[in-house]
């Protein structure tokens, strides 16, 4: 449990796919599926981490959004707040569809390996070719909608939500840190939606005597996620995306070698 919580916290915000790691680690250690309560706790921990790290930005964007409706405020920060809301819509819609169809059909090692490799290489290609001159406040609604669709694609396990949203931001000329910030901001509503969905499922099948383990999982995931965000932002400008691209390709090849297509 400790290992999985730390792995989830680190990989949730790095462009390397948390779902791939949460398949590999239990396989090597011979563990069973961690269960819905554990998923809920880890999501709660990572949500608190991103809110804590960007607390000033989140408060400012929230204020801008509220004032856009109460005081008819109109500026770049308001546009960004509404842009982030727009970018959330595709993932919510597609997430609902996948939830109804059943996500398990996509959690096939071959699919995860393929998306890890393909979208990893695409991330590296876009990162090398795209300009690094824009800030999130300079994006229009079309750009935010496109980034939202990129995030929706990341609902396919292995694609990496962080990786796909960074890819979308870089494609529209955001510098690396700005693209990462947008990816982290977008994690807030998506993770909140995931927590709400998991809570509803959990209420239908209550856990017994698992609250201590869930609390520990939330704390460990939150602390490791906070550290991952901090160091990822610090290293972006110097190393770019290539180390993560190489890691994703190696990870995908490893999944194919160990599990084949269907595991």
TrEMBL record:
MF GO annotations: undecaprenyl-diphosphatase activity
Domain of life, per lineage: Bacteria
Keywords, comma-separated and alphabetical: Antibiotic resistance, Cell membrane, Cell shape, Cell wall biogenesis/degradation, Hydrolase, Membrane, Peptidoglycan synthesis, Transmembrane, Transmembrane helix
Enzyme class: hydrolase
Entry membrane topology: Multi-pass membrane protein
Keyword Oxidoreductase in record: no
Enzyme Commission numbers on file: 3.6.1.27
Catalyses which reaction(s): di-trans,octa-cis-undecaprenyl diphosphate + H2O = di-trans,octa-cis-undecaprenyl phosphate + phosphate + H(+)
Intracellular or extracellular location(s): Cell membrane
Regions that span the bilayer: 79-102, 108-126, 182-204, 210-233, 245-262
Sequence similarity: Belongs to the UppP family.
Function: Catalyzes the dephosphorylation of undecaprenyl diphosphate (UPP). Confers resistance to bacitracin.
More about this protein: Bacitracin is thought to be involved in the inhibition of peptidoglycan synthesis by sequestering undecaprenyl diphosphate, thereby reducing the pool of lipid carrier available.
Protein's UniProt name: Undecaprenyl-diphosphatase
Provenance organism: Salinisphaera dokdonensis CL-ES53
Gene it is expressed from: uppP
């Amino acid at each position: 449990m400790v290992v999985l919580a730390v792995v989830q916290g680190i990989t949730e915000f790095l462009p390397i796919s948390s779902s791939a790691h949460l398949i590999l680690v239990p396989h090597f250690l011979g563990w069973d599926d961690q269960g819905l309560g554990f998923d809920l706790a880890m999501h709660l921990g990572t949500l608190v981490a991103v809110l804590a790290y960007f607390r000033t930005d989140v408060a400012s964007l929230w204020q801008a959004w509220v004032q856009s409706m109460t005081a008819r405020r109109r500026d770049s920060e308001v546009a960004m707040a509404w842009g982030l809301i727009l970018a959330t819509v595709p993932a919510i819609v597609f997430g609902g569809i996948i939830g109804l169809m059943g996500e398990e059909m996509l959690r096939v090692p071959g699919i995860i390996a393929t998306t890890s490799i393909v979208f990893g290489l695409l991330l590296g290609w876009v990162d090398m070719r795209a300009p690094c001159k824009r800030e999130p406040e300079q994006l229009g609604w079309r750009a935010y909608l496109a980034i939202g669709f990129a995030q929706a694609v990341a609902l396919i396990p292995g694609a990496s939500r962080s990786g796909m949203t960074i890819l979308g931001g870089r494609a529209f000329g955001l510098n690396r840190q700005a693209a990462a910030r947008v990816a982290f901001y977008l994690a807030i509503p998506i993770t909140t939606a995931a927590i709400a969905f998991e809570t509803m499922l959990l209420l239908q099948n209550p856990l017994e005597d698992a609250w201590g383990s869930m609390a520990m999982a939330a704390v460990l995931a939150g602390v490791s996620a906070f550290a991952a965000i901090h160091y990822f932002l610090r290293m972006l400008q110097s190393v770019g995306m290539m180390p993560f691209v190489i890691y994703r390709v190696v990870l995908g090849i490893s999944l194919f070698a160990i599990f084949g297509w269907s595991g």
